[in-house]
Design brief:
CATH topology of the largest domain: Rossmann fold
Order of helices and strands: HEHEHEHEHHHHHHHHEHEHE
Mean pLDDT: 91
CATH architecture of the largest domain: 3-Layer(aba) Sandwich
CATH superfamily of the largest domain: Vaccinia Virus protein VP39
Strand content: 5-15%
Largest sheet: 7 strands, mixed
Radius of gyration: 21 Å
Number of helices: 14
Structural class: alpha/beta
Strand order of the largest sheet: 3-2-1-4-5-7-6
Length: 323
């Protein structure tokens, strides 16, 4: 599998991250290394690029592609939810503290994973119902679909897919699996199409899109990883370091927005209190009031960027005011 892909909002990411010669930058979702190739060139031989990905195929592809960047490269197979442990392991190996100057998160599933049918992420081709970003993980989408009860399936599809027909789809899945296990994407799509009323299938995205998104998020615990990864990046970043996050749906973006908001205004005192007594000081300052979105030209070139939102924040020590 080749992980070549067009990096989303490359210029905007570089502008937000501001990599400099000698910086330590962590690409928490290396994927096809589309962003990291450019970052590596900018930090140069004295810089260090740490690339993290759950998928060994992504790491193998990235190692070859990014070697031209001529920076120090550390590739780690892992989950950015374990970011603090990953950095600590590298510190022990290096024998010195590592205080990264920037963190990049590009959430969601990568284009190559979507494009390879046997990974089970796509509803457009019939393949094993898998959806694991880490192929060694024990939990698959088929495991959830064939073991969860109606209530559990409804919650997953409703909360992670924001699907209005969640309870109906869950009932149809449970009914369908009584006759045979649902082990392929085609079988799941068939159950979803039967559940969604014909009128609702005529317009908008594919009827299976939201359910597939929900199952993918559940299989990979994506939202839990987003929360843990962002919080760890804020804690680990050097003063002046930048945390940049690309989100592709509202659930991810909401977590990033809330984590940044808490970092900028951590006070837990009663708003009616005359003065702050909790002693918590801001650890972040924002770089823009609103998220950055792709231009019309980029959407035409790379349609998968359509839903992307970029948020960025800067690590501070105490209250340093606005940038």
């Amino acid at each position: 599998m080749q992980f070549d892909h067009v990096p989303v909002m490359l210029n905007e990411v570089i502008a937000a991250l501001r990599p400099q010669k000698g910086d330590i930058i962590v690409d928490c979702t290396l994927g096809g290394a589309g962003h990291s190739i450019h970052i590596g060139r900018m930090i140069g031989p004295d810089g260090m690029l740490i690339g993290i990905d759950r998928d060994p195929a992504a790491l193998d592809s990235a190692a070859e592609r990014i070697s031209e960047a001529e920076c120090r490269l550390e590739l780690v197979r892992g989950n950015f939810a374990d970011l603090a442990d990953i950095v600590a392991d590298l510190e022990r190996r290096d024998g010195r503290p590592l205080t990264p100057n920037g963190f990049l998160f590009d959430f969601g599933v990568s284009s190559p994973q979507l494009d390879v049918a046997e990974r089970g992420f796509t509803y457009r081709e019939d393949a094993p119902l898998d959806m694991r970003m880490d192929p060694d993980s024990p939990l698959t989408a088929a495991g959830i679909v064939n073991s969860a009860d109606v209530g559990e399936l409804t919650t997953i599809i409703r909360d992670y897919g924001e699907e209005r027909w969640a309870s109906r789809i869950a009932r149809f899945i449970v009914e369908r699996r009584r006759s045979e296990p649902i082990i392929t994407t085609g079988q799941l799509v068939s159950a979803i199409l039967a559940a969604v009323p014909a009128a609702a299938r005529r317009d908008g995205p594919h009827p299976a899109r939201r359910t597939f998104q929900a199952l993918r998020i559940a299989v990979n615990d994506e939202l839990g990883a987003v929360r843990k990864g962002i919080e760890a990046a804020i804690e680990l970043s050097a003063p002046g370091g930048r945390i940049v996050a690309l989100s592709y749906h509202s659930l991810e973006d909401r977590i990033v927005k809330e984590a940044f908001r808490t970092g900028m205004a951590p006070c837990t005192c009663d708003p009616a209190a005359p003065a702050c007594v909790c002693g918590k000081r801001p650890s972040l300052m924002r770089t823009s009031l609103k998220p950055v979105t792709p231009s019309d030209d980029e959407i035409r070139i790379n349609p998968r960027s359509r839903s992307a939102k970029l948020r960025a924040a800067v690590k501070v020590l105490g209250d340093m005011g606005d940038e």
